[in-house]
Amino acid sequence: MKKGAMVLVLFLLLILIGCSQNLPYAESEERYKIFYIAPENKDDEHFDHFQWFTDFHEENTDVGILVYDLHLTEETYPSLDANEAPYFYILDQKKILLETNDFEEVRKFLEENIE
User: Fold this and answer.
1) 98: closest CA among 113, 115, 84?
2) Which of 30, 65, 67, 100 has the most crowded CB, counting CB atoms within 10 A?
3) How far apart are alpha carbons 15 and 32 in whole angstroms?
4) CB-side exposure of 48: number of CA atoms within 13 Å?
């Protein structure tokens, strides 16, 4: 009986692990996390976006920033189903609040939601 219970517990644990989503949520000290999937070819637009995020973070330290390329995103966070770059996600500690390929939409969201 003990062996059967152990197998059942292991089976349920594997199901739970398989169903859980691994997302780059905001950490406890962060209000939001900006997850920026940067293009492979870094052009002026990429550097402008990155600079804006850096400046925004310096003024709003409760907003974290992660910058990955598409390949690393697909490997690290396959549940995001990312398939283009540049692409942006804004997450809080529990869910995705915004996902878009439009930088201006990200800027507007952050400016409107941060006091």
Assistant:
1) 113
2) 30
3) 29
4) 7
Question: What band does 15 get if pLDDT is binned at 50, 70 and 90?
Answer: very low
Q: Say whether pTM exceeds 0.85.
A: no
Joined together, the tokens standing for residue 86 give 């540049």
Residue count of the chain: 115
Decide if pLDDT at 17 tops 70. Answer: no
pLDDT bracket for residue 93 (50, 70, 90):
very high
Q: For 42-70, give one letter per residue: b (16+ CB within 10 A) or e.
A: eeeebeebbeebeebeeeeeebbebebeb
Amino acid at 95: K
Q: At what angle do helices 44-59 and 103-113 cross, to 10 degrees?
A: 10
Average pLDDT over residues 62-88: 92
Strands of 63-69's sheet in order across: 63-69, 32-38, 87-91, 96-100
